[in-house]
């Protein structure tokens, strides 16, 4: 009987969907040119049914005057969060730049190539709780003439929030546990 309870508990754990486990999704439609005074969109598909508790985003791009750039991240439900608005002056590039609400430094006070982890212009917590499954867009707007660049790649790091297991599996597991427990009690 103990073996059955153990098996059911194990099944329940397996049914629990990725609670607090971060998954990284990587862009595949890159590299993309960042032309002068134009917008560049790169999209990335999240296949998982997940409701974020935390979203971080990492970008890599070359550009010869980063203050031209206004970069935002747009979720499948059209929530838009500004990552950086025209920072870094005449500096070059974003190199392994991670935007994370819990970073110590704001992107607003950092300098190109912005290597490291920074708080974005607007909190990424704006994405929390809304469905993350679907197409995400990194929107890179070059807003001043002369300098151009290339979007090399970007990735999303999504940690699920308070997830709930599949109701049918959960009901099955709990029902099974109750049945087994009642059976054990009757025999004792
Ligand atoms: Ca974060
Ligand atoms: Ca430009």
Break the fold down into its secondary structure elements and pairings.
Elements: H1 2-15, E1 23-26, E2 32-34, E3 39-46, E4 52-63, E5 69-74, E6 80-85, E7 94-99, E8 105-106, E9 116-119, E10 134-142, E11 149-160, H2 167-187
Bound molecules: calcium ion (2 copies).
Residues 54, 56, 100-102 line the site of one calcium ion (CA).
Label this structure with key terms.
188 residues, 19% helix, 4-stranded antiparallel beta sheet, Jelly Rolls, alpha+beta, binds calcium ion, 7-stranded mixed beta sheet, 2 domains, single chain
Q: Supply the CATH architecture of the largest domain.
A: Sandwich
How many beta-strand runs? 11
- Rounded to an integer, what's the Rg over CA atoms? 22 Å
Q: Bin the strand percentage.
A: 35-45%
Whole-number count of domains: 2
Secondary structure: helix percent: 10-25%
CATH superfamily label of the largest domain: Galactose-binding domain-like
CATH third-level topology of the largest domain:
Jelly Rolls
Mean pLDDT metric = 90
Shape: elongated
Number of helical runs? 2
CATH class of the largest domain: Mainly Beta
Main sheet overview? 7 strands, mixed
Assign the structural class, choosing from mainly alpha, mainly beta, alpha/beta, alpha+beta, or little secondary structure: alpha+beta
Instruction: Report the bound ligands by name, code or SMILES.
Output: calcium ion
Note poorly predicted spans: none
Distance between the termini: 12 Å
**Elements, N to C (H/E):** HEEEEEEEEEEEH
């Amino acid at each position: 009987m103990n073996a059955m309870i153990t098996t059911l508990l194990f099944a329940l754990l397996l049914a629990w969907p990725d609670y607090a486990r971060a998954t990284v999704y990587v862009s595949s439609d890159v590299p993309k040119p960042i032309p002068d005074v134009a917008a560049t969109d790169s999209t990335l598909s999240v296949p998982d049914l997940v409701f974020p508790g935390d979203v971080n985003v990492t970008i890599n791009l070359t550009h010869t005057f980063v203050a031209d750039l206004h970069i935002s991240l747009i979720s499948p439900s059209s929530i838009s969060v500004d990552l950086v608005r025209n920072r870094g002056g005449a500096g070059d590039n974003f190199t392994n730049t991670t935007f994370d609400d819990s970073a110590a430094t704001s992107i607003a006070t950092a300098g190109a190539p912005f290597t490291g982890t920074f708080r974005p212009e607007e909190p990424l917590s704006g994405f929390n709780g809304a469905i993350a499954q679907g197409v995400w867009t990194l929107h890179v707007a070059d807003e001043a003439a002369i300098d151009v660049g290339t979007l090399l790649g970007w990735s999303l790091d999504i940690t699920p929030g308070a997830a709930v297991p599949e109701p049918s599996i959960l009901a099955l597991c709990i029902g099974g546990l109750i049945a087994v427990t009642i059976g054990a009690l009757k025999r004792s």
